[in-house]
Amino acid sequence: MPFPNFDDVIHEPHRLQICAYLVPAPGRDFGDVRDAMGLSDSALSKHLKALAGKGYARLERGVRDGRQVTTVALTPTGREALCGHVAELQRMARIVSAGRRPMQRTR
């Protein structure tokens, strides 16, 4: 079980979605991530720069079929940070739901 830790870098909605999208694959093409997130190249680059700056994502440039490709991957540090962030959100949700009282109807 990961240690619950709120991570303000991952918490930004697009970055949270990007990290979650990267989890099941060892790497995804930049264009696939861009299209899945519905972001422009520049907006995705900005988010990936923030994630890479914390060591959460890795970008690898290479050539495939004669054209330049960039592969994006979540690092082990990024996976751990994402799991910790999700654990903290779950912890917070349990607190909120435990404090909920049934609504009383007024007549």
Topology, please?
Elements: H1 8-11, H2 13-22, E1 28-29, H3 30-37, H4 41-53, E2 57-64, E3 67-74, H5 76-98
Antiparallel strand pairs: 1-3, 2-3
Largest sheet: 3 strands, antiparallel
CATH topology: Arc Repressor Mutant, subunit A
Output the helix-strand order. HHEHHEEH
Mean pLDDT: 92
Question: What sort of overall outline do the alpha carbons produce when their principal axes are compared?
Answer: elongated
Secondary-structure-derived class: alpha+beta
Number of DSSP strand runs: 3
Commentary on this structure:
This protein has 107 residues and is an alpha+beta fold. It has a single domain, classed as Arc Repressor Mutant, subunit A (Orthogonal Bundle), CATH 1.10.10. Helices cover 54% and strands 17% of the residues. It contains 5 helices and 3 strands, in the order H-H-E-H-H-E-E-H. It has helices spanning 8-11, 13-22, 30-37, 41-53, 76-98, and strands at 28-29, 57-64, 67-74. It has a 3-stranded antiparallel beta sheet. Strand 2 (57-64) and strand 3 (67-74) form a beta hairpin. The longest helix is centred in the last third of the chain and has 23 residues, at 76-98. It is elongated and about 60 Å long. The termini are far apart.
